[in-house]
Amino acid sequence: MESVNDHRTATLRLPASDRRRQLVETALDCFSRKGFGGTTTKEIAAAAGVTEAIIFRHFPTKQDLYNAVLDLHHGDGRLADCIARWKGFMDRNDDAGLFRSMIDEIMEAHRRDLRGHRVMLFAALEGHEAALEYNRQFSLPIYELLCQYVTRRQREGALRAGDPGAIIAAVYGMAEQYSTATRMFGFHTDSTDEQMAGNFIDIVMHGIQADQPTGRAL
What we know:
By secondary structure, the chain is mainly α. It is built from eleven helices and no strands.
Protein backbone atom coordinates (compact mmCIF):
# COMPACT_ATOMS: atom_id res chain seq x y z
CA MET A 1 0.00 0.00 0.00
CA GLU A 2 1.34 3.45 -1.01
CA SER A 3 2.27 5.63 1.96
CA VAL A 4 1.76 9.36 2.26
CA ASN A 5 5.51 9.86 1.98
CA ASP A 6 5.63 7.81 -1.20
CA HIS A 7 2.86 9.94 -2.66
CA ARG A 8 4.64 13.15 -1.63
CA THR A 9 7.88 11.89 -3.23
CA ALA A 10 6.09 11.05 -6.47
CA THR A 11 4.48 14.46 -6.50
CA LEU A 12 7.81 16.21 -6.01
CA ARG A 13 9.26 14.43 -9.04
CA LEU A 14 6.98 16.10 -11.56
CA PRO A 15 8.85 17.83 -14.40
CA ALA A 16 9.25 21.55 -13.76
CA SER A 17 6.76 22.58 -16.46
CA ASP A 18 4.13 20.16 -15.16
CA ARG A 19 4.73 21.25 -11.58
CA ARG A 20 4.35 24.90 -12.54
CA ARG A 21 1.13 24.17 -14.36
CA GLN A 22 -0.20 22.19 -11.39
CA LEU A 23 0.60 25.00 -8.98
CA VAL A 24 -1.08 27.60 -11.19
CA GLU A 25 -4.22 25.47 -11.61
CA THR A 26 -4.36 24.85 -7.86
CA ALA A 27 -3.83 28.54 -7.14
CA LEU A 28 -6.57 29.45 -9.61
CA ASP A 29 -8.95 27.20 -7.73
CA CYS A 30 -7.96 28.68 -4.36
CA PHE A 31 -8.02 32.31 -5.48
CA SER A 32 -11.40 31.80 -7.13
CA ARG A 33 -12.87 30.63 -3.80
CA LYS A 34 -11.22 33.06 -1.36
CA GLY A 35 -9.62 35.84 -3.37
CA PHE A 36 -6.02 37.02 -3.26
CA GLY A 37 -6.18 38.41 0.26
CA GLY A 38 -8.03 35.43 1.69
CA THR A 39 -5.69 32.80 0.25
CA THR A 40 -2.30 31.88 1.69
CA THR A 41 0.56 30.11 -0.04
CA LYS A 42 0.37 27.54 2.73
CA GLU A 43 -3.19 26.70 1.70
CA ILE A 44 -2.19 26.47 -1.96
CA ALA A 45 0.73 24.20 -1.09
CA ALA A 46 -1.52 21.92 0.95
CA ALA A 47 -4.07 21.73 -1.86
CA ALA A 48 -1.29 20.89 -4.33
CA GLY A 49 0.28 18.32 -2.02
CA VAL A 50 3.63 20.11 -1.81
CA THR A 51 5.52 22.32 0.61
CA GLU A 52 5.57 26.11 0.45
CA ALA A 53 9.24 25.82 -0.51
CA ILE A 54 8.19 24.15 -3.76
CA ILE A 55 5.86 27.05 -4.56
CA PHE A 56 8.57 29.63 -3.90
CA ARG A 57 10.98 27.66 -6.04
CA HIS A 58 8.74 28.37 -9.03
CA PHE A 59 7.18 31.66 -7.90
CA PRO A 60 9.27 33.96 -5.68
CA THR A 61 6.20 35.67 -4.23
CA LYS A 62 2.49 35.10 -3.88
CA GLN A 63 1.93 37.99 -6.29
CA ASP A 64 4.06 36.22 -8.90
CA LEU A 65 1.85 33.15 -8.56
CA TYR A 66 -1.24 35.34 -8.81
CA ASN A 67 0.16 36.95 -11.97
CA ALA A 68 0.62 33.48 -13.46
CA VAL A 69 -3.03 32.74 -12.68
CA LEU A 70 -4.06 35.91 -14.53
CA ASP A 71 -1.86 34.89 -17.47
CA LEU A 72 -3.56 31.50 -17.54
CA HIS A 73 -6.99 33.13 -17.61
CA HIS A 74 -6.15 35.58 -20.39
CA GLY A 75 -3.38 33.91 -22.33
CA ASP A 76 -4.81 30.57 -23.44
CA GLY A 77 -5.17 31.62 -27.10
CA ARG A 78 -8.96 31.75 -27.07
CA LEU A 79 -8.98 35.55 -26.97
CA ALA A 80 -6.90 35.85 -30.15
CA ASP A 81 -9.16 33.35 -31.93
CA CYS A 82 -12.21 35.26 -30.74
CA ILE A 83 -10.91 38.59 -32.02
CA ALA A 84 -10.05 37.05 -35.39
CA ARG A 85 -13.57 35.66 -35.64
CA TRP A 86 -15.13 39.00 -34.74
CA LYS A 87 -13.00 40.82 -37.32
CA GLY A 88 -14.38 38.42 -39.90
CA PHE A 89 -17.92 39.54 -39.05
CA MET A 90 -16.78 43.16 -39.21
CA ASP A 91 -15.24 42.69 -42.65
CA ARG A 92 -18.58 41.29 -43.88
CA ASN A 93 -20.59 44.03 -42.14
CA ASP A 94 -22.52 41.28 -40.35
CA ASP A 95 -23.84 43.23 -37.39
CA ALA A 96 -26.14 40.53 -36.01
CA GLY A 97 -23.46 37.89 -36.53
CA LEU A 98 -20.91 39.94 -34.60
CA PHE A 99 -23.22 40.63 -31.68
CA ARG A 100 -24.37 37.01 -31.57
CA SER A 101 -20.76 35.84 -31.53
CA MET A 102 -20.03 38.19 -28.62
CA ILE A 103 -22.98 36.80 -26.66
CA ASP A 104 -22.09 33.19 -27.49
CA GLU A 105 -18.48 33.70 -26.38
CA ILE A 106 -19.49 35.23 -23.04
CA MET A 107 -21.93 32.41 -22.31
CA GLU A 108 -19.42 29.76 -23.37
CA ALA A 109 -16.71 31.29 -21.16
CA HIS A 110 -19.01 30.97 -18.15
CA ARG A 111 -19.91 27.39 -19.04
CA ARG A 112 -16.28 26.44 -19.59
CA ASP A 113 -14.80 27.60 -16.29
CA LEU A 114 -16.13 30.07 -13.76
CA ARG A 115 -12.91 30.30 -11.80
CA GLY A 116 -11.39 33.09 -13.85
CA HIS A 117 -14.53 35.19 -13.54
CA ARG A 118 -14.59 34.64 -9.79
CA VAL A 119 -10.94 35.69 -9.50
CA MET A 120 -11.74 38.98 -11.24
CA LEU A 121 -14.80 39.57 -9.07
CA PHE A 122 -12.65 39.09 -5.98
CA ALA A 123 -10.06 41.46 -7.46
CA ALA A 124 -12.73 44.15 -7.79
CA LEU A 125 -14.06 43.55 -4.28
CA GLU A 126 -10.56 43.60 -2.79
CA GLY A 127 -9.49 46.63 -4.79
CA HIS A 128 -6.58 44.68 -6.29
CA GLU A 129 -5.66 47.41 -8.75
CA ALA A 130 -2.81 45.48 -10.40
CA ALA A 131 -5.17 42.66 -11.37
CA LEU A 132 -7.84 45.08 -12.57
CA GLU A 133 -5.32 47.01 -14.66
CA TYR A 134 -4.06 43.73 -16.11
CA ASN A 135 -7.60 42.88 -17.14
CA ARG A 136 -8.15 46.33 -18.65
CA GLN A 137 -5.07 45.91 -20.82
CA PHE A 138 -6.85 43.03 -22.56
CA SER A 139 -10.40 44.37 -22.44
CA LEU A 140 -10.07 48.02 -23.44
CA PRO A 141 -8.50 47.44 -26.89
CA ILE A 142 -11.33 45.02 -27.71
CA TYR A 143 -13.92 47.50 -26.46
CA GLU A 144 -12.38 50.25 -28.60
CA LEU A 145 -12.31 47.98 -31.66
CA LEU A 146 -16.00 47.17 -31.25
CA CYS A 147 -16.92 50.82 -30.70
CA GLN A 148 -15.03 51.80 -33.86
CA TYR A 149 -17.00 49.23 -35.80
CA VAL A 150 -20.34 50.46 -34.46
CA THR A 151 -19.36 54.05 -35.27
CA ARG A 152 -18.55 53.11 -38.85
CA ARG A 153 -21.83 51.23 -39.27
CA GLN A 154 -23.72 54.21 -37.85
CA ARG A 155 -22.08 56.49 -40.41
CA GLU A 156 -23.09 54.06 -43.13
CA GLY A 157 -26.69 54.20 -41.94
CA ALA A 158 -26.85 50.51 -40.97
CA LEU A 159 -27.21 51.13 -37.23
CA ARG A 160 -29.23 53.80 -35.47
CA ALA A 161 -27.47 56.78 -33.94
CA GLY A 162 -26.45 56.57 -30.31
CA ASP A 163 -23.46 56.13 -28.04
CA PRO A 164 -21.41 53.25 -29.52
CA GLY A 165 -20.13 52.39 -26.05
CA ALA A 166 -23.67 52.04 -24.76
CA ILE A 167 -24.52 49.66 -27.59
CA ILE A 168 -21.50 47.46 -26.86
CA ALA A 169 -22.24 47.63 -23.13
CA ALA A 170 -25.83 46.54 -23.81
CA VAL A 171 -24.74 43.51 -25.85
CA TYR A 172 -22.05 42.51 -23.35
CA GLY A 173 -24.14 43.34 -20.30
CA MET A 174 -27.11 41.17 -21.21
CA ALA A 175 -24.98 38.09 -21.77
CA GLU A 176 -22.69 38.71 -18.79
CA GLN A 177 -25.51 39.39 -16.33
CA TYR A 178 -27.55 36.43 -17.53
CA SER A 179 -24.54 34.10 -17.30
CA THR A 180 -23.59 35.41 -13.86
CA ALA A 181 -27.14 35.02 -12.57
CA THR A 182 -27.55 31.47 -13.89
CA ARG A 183 -24.02 30.07 -13.43
CA MET A 184 -22.99 31.78 -10.20
CA PHE A 185 -26.18 32.77 -8.41
CA GLY A 186 -28.26 29.71 -9.27
CA PHE A 187 -31.14 31.37 -11.09
CA HIS A 188 -32.91 29.15 -13.62
CA THR A 189 -34.91 29.89 -16.74
CA ASP A 190 -36.99 27.72 -19.05
CA SER A 191 -34.82 28.76 -22.01
CA THR A 192 -31.55 27.26 -23.19
CA ASP A 193 -28.49 29.47 -23.59
CA GLU A 194 -28.96 29.29 -27.36
CA GLN A 195 -32.57 30.42 -27.10
CA MET A 196 -31.65 33.21 -24.71
CA ALA A 197 -28.87 34.37 -27.02
CA GLY A 198 -31.40 34.55 -29.84
CA ASN A 199 -33.71 36.63 -27.64
CA PHE A 200 -30.87 39.00 -26.80
CA ILE A 201 -30.00 39.47 -30.47
CA ASP A 202 -33.62 40.22 -31.29
CA ILE A 203 -33.67 42.87 -28.56
CA VAL A 204 -30.39 44.39 -29.74
CA MET A 205 -31.39 44.54 -33.38
CA HIS A 206 -35.08 45.44 -33.01
CA GLY A 207 -35.62 46.80 -29.48
CA ILE A 208 -38.54 45.98 -27.22
CA GLN A 209 -41.09 48.62 -28.14
CA ALA A 210 -44.04 47.33 -30.15
CA ASP A 211 -44.48 48.65 -33.67
CA GLN A 212 -46.81 51.63 -33.63
CA PRO A 213 -49.71 51.72 -36.08
CA THR A 214 -49.12 54.19 -38.89
CA GLY A 215 -52.78 55.20 -39.03
CA ARG A 216 -56.32 54.00 -38.61
CA ALA A 217 -57.91 52.29 -41.54
CA LEU A 218 -61.06 53.98 -42.88
